[in-house]
Amino acid sequence: MAESSSLHHQLAELFPGKIICLSGPPGVGKTSIGRSMARALNRRFYRFSVGGLADVAEIKGHRRTYVGAMPGKMVQCLKNVGTANPLVLIDEIDKLGKGHAGDPASALLELLDPEQNANFLDHFLDVPIDLSKVLFVCTANVVEMIPNPLLDRMEVIALAGYITDEKMHIARDYLEKTTREACGIKSEQVEVTDAALLALIENYCREAGVRNLQKQIEKIYRKIALQLVRQGVTNEQSLKVSLQQGAKQLREKSTEEPTQIADDGPGGKKLEDGNSHERATTTTLTESEQAIEVSLHEQPNGTATEESEATSHEHLVEQLEADKVQPTLLSSDGIATTDQPVDSKVNIKTSDVKDVKVDNVIEKVIVDVSNLADFVGKPVFHAERIYDQTPVGVVMGLAWTAMGGSTLYVETALVEQGEGKGALLLTGQLGDVMKESAQIAHTVARAILLQKEPDNPFFADSKLHLHVPAGATPKDGPSAGCTMITSMLSLAMKKHVKKELAMTGEVTLTGRILPIGGVKEKIIAARRSEVKTIIFPSANRRDFDELAANVKEGLEVHFVDDYNQIFELAFGSNSKPQI
């Protein structure tokens, strides 16, 4: 037992570092995963970006003969982390530059190759450095942009985009919490409903990652913070006005009734009028008002809190209770004293001040679908589904984009008919590959129609116009081949395709269906458009089986090898032609 444990420890120490490449769209958390890996492995973390890097000396260091010479990135890394086995994240490796100072991609070969980096030579130090224990993690958006010799040394892990449910959990559990703390807002002061969050994801943030979702949530909470601050300033001003009005009412009541003070006995002197007492009362109230004004103006504008406002209110009440005006009497020696009984008319009541109630409760801000546009503006995206039932000649396809996936319609219309006028016109800003797919689709559709309806000369005598909305968006790729064939056959036979159907797949001239990429992204787009039935090539079955159960839930997926299978699924035996 002890021998096996020591052997395992020895093997673990001799285990070489691996080069992992995390590829995926922006905002899916590639850099965060690298940082989490370092924390889980208890290794020091170091990150540097090579995007736009065009100088080999940044990696291998400058020779000491140059002015301002510095060691390379790896020597700086080992100097900072202080260990021989850190986790080094090389960011944006697919955006390497190439200039007159050499090819950084070729320099990275020595750095990343496990067979060579045991004796990595930095030009500045000119001493071999052992990098075999370093765990390298690279990130890239497009793997095809990485040079093949460099890509051959990596283990690529593809990170797909997040579905709506995953985005909801990320927003609730992390994005919303961190944004609220950054803005200084308490959880009981704001509520973002699930319906508003779902509308935010579907109508504003359809990209594969969550970076744009984080921006929109931050925008919402910044505006909520501004509302709360404005409410707080208004409450502070209303408190000041109420307190000042209470003091003014006290002063008016005390000056309206001059006090007549009776004879104080044998040794006392009778005041003929209340002028002396009125002056004393006015002086006492004036001092109280000044104290109140000072306490009010000591609060800085815009920084009022509930505690400070409540304290100022209590201070006013205590001040007025302490300053209850006692009747001022003159003793036999002419010195003013307040030791005598108080006439009931001169008791100043502070109930008016105590009854001053200031509504200092800040209303809870609720963000719902109805007021979501007030925080983030008008929706950026609209419903991708244009037709409830697609017309004749229109079929829904599935496409992969940098946003993660989308549905698109392929529309075919008849331009003119006449003997020998068979032709095909293409629009929709299609790329070269997609134009070739349309030509292949036209040929295959003509052959299939000849099999199904030998007496129908539609393609030979009809000029067709095939369009793929939206016209301003560039489109390319071979995966729309089967969709184009179905669109042309729908127009030729005047039959609707099955409702809530979408398809994708490349087609050969013989009608074989070839595999495509971006299965998860296309399924996400289909679910967003409420598609129930999807047609995939049979070779993509393994990609579909690897998906989570919540992604595949509620979908009827068919895998086909030949277009004749798609024909039966799209039109069926009970489909009647439109008259």
UniProtKB/TrEMBL annotation:
<dbReference type="GO" id="GO:0007005">
    <property type="term" value="P:mitochondrion organization"/>
</dbReference>
<dbReference type="GO" id="GO:0004252">
    <property type="term" value="F:serine-type endopeptidase activity"/>
</dbReference>
<feature type="domain" description="Lon proteolytic">
    <location>
        <begin position="389"/>
        <end position="573"/>
    </location>
</feature>
<dbReference type="InterPro" id="IPR020568">
    <property type="entry name" value="Ribosomal_Su5_D2-typ_SF"/>
</dbReference>
<dbReference type="GO" id="GO:0005524">
    <property type="term" value="F:ATP binding"/>
</dbReference>
<dbReference type="GO" id="GO:0004176">
    <property type="term" value="F:ATP-dependent peptidase activity"/>
</dbReference>
<protein>
    <recommendedName>
        <fullName>endopeptidase La</fullName>
        <ecNumber>3.4.21.53</ecNumber>
    </recommendedName>
</protein>
<keyword id="KW-0067">ATP-binding</keyword>
<dbReference type="InterPro" id="IPR004815">
    <property type="entry name" value="Lon_bac/euk-typ"/>
</dbReference>
<dbReference type="InterPro" id="IPR027417">
    <property type="entry name" value="P-loop_NTPase"/>
</dbReference>
<feature type="region of interest" description="Disordered">
    <location>
        <begin position="248"/>
        <end position="289"/>
    </location>
</feature>
<dbReference type="GO" id="GO:0003697">
    <property type="term" value="F:single-stranded DNA binding"/>
</dbReference>
<dbReference type="Pfam" id="PF05362">
    <property type="entry name" value="Lon_C"/>
</dbReference>
<dbReference type="Pfam" id="PF22667">
    <property type="entry name" value="Lon_lid"/>
</dbReference>
<keyword id="KW-0378">Hydrolase</keyword>
<feature type="active site">
    <location>
        <position position="479"/>
    </location>
</feature>
<feature type="active site">
    <location>
        <position position="522"/>
    </location>
</feature>
<dbReference type="InterPro" id="IPR008268">
    <property type="entry name" value="Peptidase_S16_AS"/>
</dbReference>
<dbReference type="GO" id="GO:0016887">
    <property type="term" value="F:ATP hydrolysis activity"/>
</dbReference>
<dbReference type="InterPro" id="IPR003959">
    <property type="entry name" value="ATPase_AAA_core"/>
</dbReference>
<dbReference type="GO" id="GO:0051131">
    <property type="term" value="P:chaperone-mediated protein complex assembly"/>
</dbReference>
<dbReference type="InterPro" id="IPR003593">
    <property type="entry name" value="AAA+_ATPase"/>
</dbReference>
<keyword id="KW-0645">Protease</keyword>
<keyword id="KW-0547">Nucleotide-binding</keyword>
<dbReference type="GO" id="GO:0005759">
    <property type="term" value="C:mitochondrial matrix"/>
</dbReference>
<comment type="similarity">
    <text>Belongs to the peptidase S16 family.</text>
</comment>
<dbReference type="GO" id="GO:0006515">
    <property type="term" value="P:protein quality control for misfolded or incompletely synthesized proteins"/>
</dbReference>
<dbReference type="InterPro" id="IPR054594">
    <property type="entry name" value="Lon_lid"/>
</dbReference>
<dbReference type="InterPro" id="IPR008269">
    <property type="entry name" value="Lon_proteolytic"/>
</dbReference>
<dbReference type="InterPro" id="IPR027065">
    <property type="entry name" value="Lon_Prtase"/>
</dbReference>
<dbReference type="Pfam" id="PF00004">
    <property type="entry name" value="AAA"/>
</dbReference>
<feature type="compositionally biased region" description="Basic and acidic residues">
    <location>
        <begin position="266"/>
        <end position="280"/>
    </location>
</feature>
<keyword id="KW-0720">Serine protease</keyword>
<dbReference type="InterPro" id="IPR014721">
    <property type="entry name" value="Ribsml_uS5_D2-typ_fold_subgr"/>
</dbReference>
